[in-house]
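Reading a protein record of the kind used here takes only a little practice. Think of the row as the fold of the chain written in a discrete alphabet. With that in mind, consider the following protein and its fold in token form:
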Amino acid sequence: WSSSRTAIKQWGRKIKEKLPSARKQNKSSPRRRSRNGTGSQLCGKTRKKRNLTMSPMISVEVPDTVTINISNSQNDTISFERKYSRSLKIYEFKAKLEPITGGSAGTMRLELYSGERLVCRLDGDSQPLGSYPIEDGMRVHVIDQFPCLQENVPKFELSLEEYDKKEDSLRSFLKKNKLGKYNAEEMAKQEEERKRQEEEDRQKVDGTAIGARCRVTAKNNPVRLGTVMYKGPLDGKPGLFFGVKFDEPLGVNDGTMNGKRYFDCGPKYGSFVAPKAVEVGDFPPEEFSLDDEL
């Protein structure tokens, strides 16, 4: 054991004697090159810098608009889901609240609530709305005297005689320019056309038999075939009408009008049509076969 200890001590001394020479040799020897021609130590530093620049950065995106609810101190009315830009100044935001609440932008005070909890007061008129902790679903409460909301205001009324004396009214303009019902010539033409149409309708109705086949062409509706089931006036309606039972359910009723039955047919098979939209003739029912479709 003593001889082993002596051997170990001698080996340690030899190692210490060789260390200074090895360090000098490392300093004087050329630096090891990497594959790209730079020193390994330099490559290590570069790799360290690259790792730092490639580290991920965390960023939070804030939307440009916020959707909130608006309430006021005048009543319990709440305007839901109003969208506003976060860049709006508070004084601009107040101006937009005027038509909603009836308050005045110059006197109203704003409070921000999350549920029933008061978050803060929006009292910086020159501050943008987004500078406050406002989030979607919050509520802005408007406090004001609401001078624009006045109840029991007397209604302005003007008699017909006073209205006729006004020179800046619509009636005065129509009279001066002989427009509408104040154009005697035009009104006479319209009355003449109305009487002519009434006479044509009466002759068509009188000359059409119940059960006659017809084709109906009405505005905003497809051309429909059917059978005349009724002809004459309708309660509460001016003029004459045909009651038509269609071959297909393309009508609007079952032969009744305002609770009164004029003829019988299935639901959606009946309709009352002006005579000018009805053409009486040989219009047999169309036959459909499965062979017509492939």
Notes: The CA atoms of residues 3 and 255 lie 130 Å apart.
